[in-house]
Amino acid sequence: MIRKVCAAILFSAALGNLATAQVQSDSTTDLETVSINLEQAVEYAMANNRTLKSNDIDLEMKARAAKYSWNVFLPSVSVSGTMSRSTEYSPSSAAMSGGLKTDFADEEEHWAAVGTVSASLNLSLAYIWQIRAKKAEYENGKISWEQSQKDTILNIKKLFYGLLLQQENLKIQKATLENARQRMVQAQTSYKAGAIPELSLLQTQVNYQNTKPDVESAEQSLIQSLDTFAFLLGMPVGTRIKLEGTIEPKYIDTDVATLIDNYGENDLDIRALKGQVDVLKMNLSALDIATWTPALSLNYGWQPAYIGSDGAFHFYKGIGNDDEWYDSGSLSLTLAWNVTNMLPWSSNRQQAKDLKANIAKLELTMETLRENQKVEVRKAVDTLNQAKAQIDAMGRNVTLAQRAYDATYRSYRNGMTELLDLRDAEESLNKAKLGLLNQKYSYISALMDLENTLNTPLAE
């Protein structure tokens, strides 16, 4: 049971982190052993977990997009310069010159220079809603970032307690192995003294040898689990971890209705959906405003042109003469209104209908989340109550099992009880201890799930 619990926890947490994680070192040399408690494990993961670092980058991108969302009001400015060569003399140019000139006098007169500086600015009321949507996307991104943080912390805490459970199981197995060894040594002494037959000695030896592989396997499994835990924390490969802590839950009084009424809206999933709905509504408003209101376009262009001079002046000699330049630029103000976008069957209106449909879908999803939240809270509260009752009962059971084992052991040493009876009493004691630890772990795990669902530290 212990191995299944820990294996399931490790597997689920590893899936979420291994997708983006990369091993930073190829060294297989073990590093020094690091002692770490629950708080230190969480702090280290928050600072070094690779998935969280990736989420930090995503949030930074959304923050930058929100911060500079006003840049839609920046004008588009461009500067260009052109030199062109005319192949033949234009007849219109000849007409303008009174027919006196019919061709270019030399190569330099083929050339003309044109410079352009243009600026355009498009203004629409829809931009205001687009800016608000960008800022809402950033706020929603912070919720997603917080959810990722809390999910990682939850996984780390469950892993930590799961490893403590695995560690306590190993301690019990080692204690059982040591008891088997002591019984074997005692049997060897008794056999040499002629107090017991050889069969009794062989039974203790077989029992001891059969217990050793289980303990070695459990020890190796714990080492591998700790290596995986170190990797998920972001520690260098090969770091040995020593866990510091105990499986002792903090008990709370719970009531389903009170919890949902007081903390139901704290759920990050519900808050994230609310944020998505807000963003879609802002995008819909921007689309509607762009459809039903005109857009203003401002354009200004300065275009100085030089085409050379007539007579004795050559192309390069007239560049500094103001009379040889003219400005063909312009200033325009345009008020545009796209009538097609107002038609019910236009792509613009169809896009608006799609946005409304997606808003309706998200609102249905939110209702489903709220109902599912009630189920999860009720399930967690039932688990807490059941685990608390089991902890009380198993605490008494451990006391009784310990007394039974002690009495059986004294009877065995006095030669009044068989080895099989002692092993049964020991097995019952171990089951009682592991059962108590399992229920404590179940209580801690259910409480963490409840706190994560309600996004509230109930244990505090």
List the helices and strands and how they pair.
Blueprint: H1 2-18, E1 33-36, H2 38-48, H3 50-67, E2 76-85, H4 91-96, E3 111-123, H5 126-192, H6 198-233, E4 240-243, H7 256-263, H8 268-292, E5 295-302, E6 304-306, E7 325-327, E8 330-336, H9 347-413, H10 419-454
Parallel strand pairs: 1-4
Antiparallel strand pairs: 2-3, 3-5, 3-6, 5-8, 6-7
Helix pairs in contact: 1-5, 1-6, 2-5, 3-5, 5-6, 5-8, 5-10, 8-9, 9-10
Total helices: the number is 10
Using only C-alpha atoms, the radius of gyration works out to: 40 Å
What is the succession of H and E elements? HEHHEHEHHEHHEEEEHH
Q: Which regions are unreliable across 5 or more consecutive residues at pLDDT < 50?
A: 1-30
Strand content: 5-15%
Coarse shape: elongated
The total count of strands amounts to 8
Task: Give the helix level as a range of percent.
Answer: 55-70%
Mean pLDDT: 81
For the terminal residues, how far apart are their CA atoms? 30 Å
What structural class do you assign from the helix and strand content?
alpha+beta
Biggest sheet statistics: 6 strands, antiparallel
Give a written overview of the molecule.
The protein is an alpha+beta fold and 460 residues long. The chain has ten helices and eight strands. The strands form two sheets. Strands 2, 3, 5, 6, 7 and 8 form a six-stranded antiparallel beta sheet that branches. Strands 1-4 form a two-stranded parallel sheet. Helix 3 packs antiparallel against helix 5, helix 5 packs antiparallel against helix 6 and helix 8 packs antiparallel against helix 9. The longest helix is centred in the middle third of the chain and has 67 residues. The radius of gyration is 40 Å and the shape is elongated. The two termini are 30 Å apart. The relative contact order is 0.13. The N terminus is likely disordered.
